[in-house]
Design a protein that fits this description.
homodimer; two-stranded antiparallel ribbon; electron transfer activity (chains A, B); Cytochrome c551 peroxidase (chains A, B); 268 residues; 2 domains; Cytochrome Bc1 Complex, Chain D, domain 2; mainly alpha; 4% strand; peroxidase (chains A, B); Cyt_c-like_dom (chains A, B); cytochrome-c peroxidase activity (chains A, B); 35% helix
Chain lengths: 268, 268
């Protein structure tokens, strides 16, 4: 599942963006068979209602009995408190040039340049909140359709929402399906250009694509421009590049969200 | 897994046709983790070699010790004996007009006409041995790439080999992923036009597509012509149509292959 960190700053939720709010998103995992697996929302309400403490809180906060909409509101409201900021990168951005080490600064240059990370991971939250196909799963014979399931648009086949990179060291495993365990492997994945497929995002290649190639690709498909394979999409990062990039990614970890701790007790 | 019935009459094996012979195919299931799950072909050879009776048979038949190629030859040779023929439909085809009941004859007409089955299930073995996308899985968010994994051709995304319909009553569950339990449900699946997706085969619609639609579709993609959705692909079969079609399908069961019985004993 996508991390909830800084999701307060985004409208579309889930990897495929099928929920328009955190309230809508919060209802999903309750009955998802691979998450909480409850048979229905009614069953969830019944279970929570059986706990006196929760009944009382719902009365005090919402003025009524436990119900699924208020329950989702409560979860979404909590989620909005899970924020990340105050990272060394933030301090660097706001003018403290000593906040990053030399290796981290080189990593930041790679992030914005040769490694092209910033093509999608841009803005204060290191995400464009858009959907991109980077080829995860196309070498396995089984593919998640991703954003296509919502839009039914051909160019969204296998495209998933760009995640924020904040607190990236603590949100493993990576990729929409959790198929990559470490950040080192993620960097290798991008270094070899992702996995080629007919919907591979042009963002994986743009800097080296000629104008002719771009126009040719535009001719083929309306909407986003996609590449048939990952040929030419490799990044040619050196060993030091990879180490610098990793160092930079670690400088995106902040402190705010870490204050969130499990309550000592729950309503009974 | 696809049925082995009458596979002697086909070159490309597996649902995606990735094996060029039954010998090549026979090596697959041994180490497939969801089939026999052996760690390697060496481990298979070692296991079979440990049985004296097999060692003797390999010496007598192949003139050498157990090895993976001869083992595959033996399995493939057995598979070629699993044939189906002599069905009532065969007798009908060869002139015995009383071999089918009236309902079955109506079913045959539907098969070749309104229900369009014959668009892909044609020839003596009721298969064109080609690859088609009928949309299985496109309503679940997860898709098997099928023939695409072999050819890397866009128009083969989600396309699987047309299976023979001989002995169809005994080869359930149906579809490449076994997602449909009964023939009744298979007929319903086709009746609603499969599941729409950008690669849905034009064979799902051809009879009702206008020349203009066909040319338009041809403009869009080189190679096979595909449809964006399953709109207009529904068959409008009546309740009697469905019953007749089912009756016909059952008349494809033969007798030849049923003589194959498990041996009373195996080499020891």
């Amino acid at each position: 599942a996508p991390s909830i960190i800084n999701r307060a700053f985004s409208k579309e939720q889930f990897w495929d963006g099928r929920a328009a709010s955190l309230e809508e998103q919060a209802k999903g995992p309750l009955t998802n068979p691979v998450e909480m697996g409850m048979p229905s929302h009614d069953a969830v309400v019944k279970k929570i209602s059986a706990i006196k403490g929760y009944r009382e809180w719902f009365k005090r906060v919402f003025g009524n009995d436990v119900n699924i909409d208020d329950l989702a509101k409560a979860i979404a409201t909590f989620e909005r408190t899970v924020v990340s900021g105050g990272s060394r990168m933030d301090r660097f951005t706001f003018g403290d040039k000593s906040a990053l080490t030399e290796a981290e600064k080189r990593g930041f240059e790679l992030f914005e340049g040769k490694a092209r990370c910033v093509q999608c991971h841009n803005g204060f939250n290191f995400t464009d909140e858009q959907y991109h196909n980077i080829g995860v799963g196309w070498d396995t014979g089984k593919v998640d359709l991703g954003r296509y399931t919502v839009t039914k648009r051909r160019e969204h086949i296998g495209a998933f929402k760009t995640p924020s990179l904040r607190e990236i060291t603590t949100t493993d495993p990576y990729m929409h399906n959790g198929s990559i365990e470490t950040l080192e492997e993620v960097i290798e994945f991008y270094n070899r250009g992702g996995v080629g497929n007919p919907f591979l995002d042009i963002e994986m290649k743009r800097p080296s694509a000629s104008l002719e190639e771009m126009l040719d690709a535009l001719d083929k498909i309306e909407g986003l421009v996609k590449l048939e394979s990952n040929e030419g999409a490799t990044l040619n990062l050196t060993r030091r590049d990879k180490a610098d990039l990793l160092a930079f990614l670690k400088a995106l970890d902040g402190k705010g969200w870490k204050k969130i701790e499990e309550p000592e007790s729950f309503p009974k």
